[in-house]
Design a protein that fits this description.
- The protein is mostly helical.
- Helices cover about 70% and strands about 0% of the residues.
- Helix 5 runs antiparallel to helix 6 and helix 7 packs parallel to helix 9.
- The longest helix is centred in the first third of the chain and has 26 residues.
- It is elongated.
- The protein starts with a helix and ends with a helix.
Length: about 210
């Protein structure tokens, strides 16, 4: 009987320390800094990170998006609502928050909205509107937007007057991804066939 009491006491202590340790671990989760969040968004790991952090930061994320209107957090909160990550799914509200971030010039939001309109994801497909969003993101040096914009141009969307800018952005793009590098080379070659030689020369000219 005495051994059983000792065993139960030890088990109780172990359980207490385990709960205390988990509580301490939960408290250790800190809200993401602006730079950290932007890096996660650029790597497309932001939603996974929120889940990995056990959805503990939902209220903080919502406050920074809805109250402080921080573009990176508007994008994160919008993405969470759009796809039901740690919250009830609310696609319309999610897309509107992405638009709020895009209106503040957040490149990832501009690129994602452009991609959604190009493919008809969550919104009605509208490639002309996609070109508008992607062009703004491309001008802000978002490589994914630059590549998608070239695809739309090659499919006949957008204005030929924009080909030179698209060519210039891709010609000066830097990437260590070999597949991405190969795709860019293909876009450049295809764009050259649609452009006047003088426009190609202008696009290749060194700029400050």
């Amino acid at each position: 009987m005495r051994n059983k009491i000792i065993y139960l006491a030890i088990a109780s202590l172990l359980s207490f320390f385990s709960i205390a340790s988990q509580a301490q671990e939960i408290k250790a989760v800190q809200l993401y800094s602006q730079d950290e969040l932007i890096n996660m968004i650029n790597e497309n790991s932001h939603l996974n990170r929120v889940v990995e952090d056990r959805c503990q930061l939902v209220q903080d994320i919502e406050a920074r998006a809805e109250v402080l209107r921080v573009p990176a957090y508007q994008f994160l909160w919008g993405d969470m609502l759009a796809w039901g990550v740690c919250v009830d799914e609310a696609p319309e509200r999610g897309v509107n928050l992405m638009r709020d971030a895009a209106d503040q010039g957040f490149p990832a939001a501009l690129e994602q909205l452009g991609r959604y309109y190009a493919k008809g994801t969550l919104v009605q497909q509208d490639r002309k509107r996609a070109v508008i969003y992607l062009r703004e993101a491309a001008a802000l040096k978002n490589l994914k937007a630059q590549m998608q914009l070239a695809e739309l141009f090659l499919d006949g969307y957008g204005s030929p007057y924009d080909y030179e800018d698209a060519y210039r952005w891709l010609y000066n793009a830097v990437t260590a991804d070999k597949q991405q590098h190969k795709k860019i080379a293909g876009y450049l070659s295809d764009l050259e066939e649609l452009m006047h030689p003088k426009a190609v020369r202008n696009a290749r000219r060194l700029t400050d």
